[in-house]
Sequence to fold (456 residues):
Amino acid sequence: MIKDIILKYNRPGPRYTSYPPANFFHQEFKTEDYHRALVQSNFEKPENISIYVHVPFCPKMCHFCGCNTDKLDNKETLERYFDSILKEINSVAGLLNKNRVVTQIHWGGGTPNSVPFKYIEKVMARLQDLFKFSEKAEIAMECSPAYLTKDYIFNLKKAGFNRISLGIQDLKLDVLEAVNRSPARYPIEEMVADIREAGFTGLNIDLIYGLPLQTKKSFLKTIKEIVKLKPNRLVTFSYAHVPWVKDSQNVLEKLGLPSPEDKLEMFLVAFNELIESGYISIGMDHYALPDDELAFAKREKLLHRNFQGYCTKETTGQVYAFGSTGISQLHGAYSQSIKNTSQYIKEIQENNLATERGYQLTEKDIVVRKVINEVMCNGFLNFSNCASELSISVEKLKEIIKFDIAKFEEFKNDNLLEISEEAISINETGMMIVRNIAMAFDPDLAVNTNQYSKTI
Ligand SMILES: C[S@@+](CC[C@H](N)C(=O)[O-])C[C@H]1O[C@@H](n2cnc3c(N)ncnc32)[C@H](O)[C@@H]1O
Ligand code: SF4
Fold:
């Protein structure tokens, strides 16, 4: 049974949003290294440009939040923050080859839609001035329904956005109240109708399970209501409880958190309901309607993933991040900007870029990253095809990942995958614990994996 398999493999391990994972980033990677990596990225693949813009501000803090947020203290900070973003965009654009096209822009936070629209408009205009956009570019913003208005929705469309992600989290008002989150500003059905009327081609909805007052029954009710809205994509995040990093989460313990078993029940009840309603499981709590590009990419084994979520290989680009805390994911390096808002502003004003930490990938890392990405996203790997894409021999590829078929014995006995010296193919149940399988391809995984969260 799926439940037994998930419980059996509920061990700590990296989520592989990046390889190497973000805990490998270090402060010896400095602004000069980022500058060099930016220039170098022009000669590396993918040629496409993905852009991430981070807006850390939230008018009210949700107790569960694990994101990098900042309570907006005054208007002057807002002005200076967006002025710094524009400055950072100028600096980075000045180093990039203008023939490369932008295929993806993602605004996240914090709550980007809580700031006056004029700031969004200015940044979008600057990006359009400095970069060439692909006609098929996916341009998305994470929006909290608590602050979204019909005007804002239509303005976003006018500024070029074609996707909205609504952070609904739960429809149960007492859950929202317990976690200090304001409910939607107006009925969700009307908001979704406005998003469609404005002409957005994609709607994503974020939900979380594992919060106080949530039960299997209540979460199923929320899922059923959400399905009626027919979002193209949907994510059911497992609540990550890390009070040692986020002090505000301690309040939730006092209210009483569901047990891991209850959380698993919530995940499964949501999974079954979504599959029965026609959604396709993309992986790791993500779902899409069958006609969505992600579902198509999943079928064709053309899925890819970055810090912003899943994307298709067609829209995949090297990611250039702007704003505090943003992580640029280039072919050869990762670079994260300063997290603290005022320090980020100061550093950009003085030095144009604001690297806090990062990581320079070795040739070996690039090989392991490709293998882990294919396994995590597509559940399939043909060693010889993968080696030729990397321009190395199969023997070299296997040597780098320390391939040993014996490491997969337990998964094989549990009927989670098929494996040979030629290829590995993971089935639907195996994809539920795919990060455990990916760990078997990670040659240098630390013996002590307790620093990572468990699956549930
Ligand atoms: C930056 S937030 C979303 C934008 C917007 N501020 C909102 O709340 O609607 C991105 C998503 O991360 C998820 N999230 C935040 N904290 C989390 C946590 N501790 N565990 C799991 N998911 C979390 C939420 O589902 C949220 O929609
Ligand atoms: S969940 Fe969204 S609105 Fe709530 S504090 Fe986090 S970023 Fe802000």
About this structure: The pocket of S-adenosylmethionine (ligand 1) is lined by residues 64-67, 108-111, 142, 144, 167, 169, 206, 208, 237, 239-240 (CB under 6 Å). The chain has a mean pLDDT of 94.
